TrEMBL record:
UniProt entry keywords in alphabetical sequence: Oxidoreductase
Active site: 269
Originating species: Lentinula edodes (Shiitake mushroom)
InterPro entries hit by this protein: Ald_DH/histidinol_DH, Ald_DH_C, Ald_DH_CS_GLU, Ald_DH_N, Aldehyde_DH_dom
Domain of life (superkingdom): Eukaryota
A single MF term (Gene Ontology): aldehyde dehydrogenase [NAD(P)+] activity
Chain ranges of the Aldehyde dehydrogenase domain: 35-492
Pfam family, one: Aldedh
Family: Belongs to the aldehyde dehydrogenase family.
The name this protein goes by in its record: NAD-aldehyde dehydrogenase
PANTHER family listed in its UniProt record: ALDEHYDE DEHYDROGENASE-RELATED
Amino acid sequence: MANTVQIPVPALNKEISVSTGLFINNEFVPSVDSSEVIQCFNPATEEIIASVVAGSSKDIDVAVAAARKAFKTSWGKNVTGWERSRLINKLADLIERDAQELAELETLNNGKPVAIARDFDIGDSIQCLRYYAGWADKITGQTIEVDNKSKMAFTRHEPIGVCGQIIPWNYPINMWAWKVAPALAVGCTIVMKPSELTPLTALKLSELVVEAGFPPGVINTVPSLGSIGGAALSAHPDVDKIAFTGSTLTGRKIMEAAAKSNLKKVSLELGGKSPQLIFESADLQQAAAWSALGICYNTGQDCTAGSRIYVQDTVYDKFIDVLVSTVKETVIGNGFDQKTGGGPLVSKAQFDRVWGYIDAGKAEGAKVVLGGERRNTKGFFVDPTIFTDVSSDMKIVKEEIFGPVLSIGRFKTEEEAVALANNTTYGLGAGLHSTDASQCMRVSGLLEAGTVWVNSYNLLSNNVPFGGKKQSGIGRELGSYALEEYTSVKAVHWNIGEKLQWPL
């Protein structure tokens, strides 16, 4: 039996109990062969809050075997859609019951404000589970006419099997739900590898999996380094599908490993360098508010962060003034402070990475109109930083930063705006702000992104598909489209009357 640790929450004068082992077959267990641990930090204080077992490749083997056994016996095609729905809904109920404690644990390990973790991340995760619970008994195929006198065909949408799911650190609970919910709905079993930076809430959610009544082996959680656990899952010959959210660089490695092993199905939600276009007809106050959300929400640690803004020259100066005053209202601080709208960056490495980009922007001649100054306090805090006078060859314009750093350029014509927006290797999200309906239709059709927001930004719905184009990934999450990522279609040809004459 693995250990349990009591994690203090000084701001609330309480403790949260978390099991620190690997979750396999509905039990928390030690590693088969690893004595390594993953240290979990509080990014607001830079202090270690817990250490959890670091799984090895052999632990991945054990977890995959457990998932395979469950798929063949107690899950997969062996349980009805109604039963899958009941259990997923029960899990959602338990997460809703424990939302406050889960949010506090998320804040300790990730840094984001408690209220945002509870009301947005966890609230959306509960809705996501319930949405897919509703799908569990509605997985249907087609009956296809071949020859009404002698033949028929039909299709079955079957669970693809054992799924390796690798989630990032920026939305630990939300990404857990996005991956788990559709997989469970269709009957897949799961080996989950949370980020080594933020494994605590995935372990806490695993306790609720048992309480909800899922059979052993349906959901397994193996905290591990990406180079070990993630690599082992990607190359495992008995894993049928990999779902990954993270960097484009890692996504390439996963695709290569999947291809070299058993050609397992892969879905990838990768990086972004998402643009927003501000046209002269836009409501500038609203455009500024949505732009602020696009770069400040989650302290810019968002794949769809609207990190490039292009403004029509006729309203450029006015928009800059409105945007700067809007972003100034953002409070970056400790997530347990009710006034905080954004927390610290997740780690020292991410903190150094973001400051490297800010320094590069200054060195390349971009103008800082807000932020860009370091705090002399503990914690990985970076205040929103806005650059103007940028050019397309600057690092801050070309590369994903994953922090609250915004570049603002200008354009004259609609054609120029679209060209600037699409001048990127990424294609995850894009936004445009205009009160000209015809322009909204034209430009939304021309933008090369998997999601386009018109007069809003960064809000997603569980019933609307999400995913990228170009180097932002393949496949879709959310909506009915996500079900396709976890199913394989079987065609059945049924001869009801044709007699074969032999030889031909």
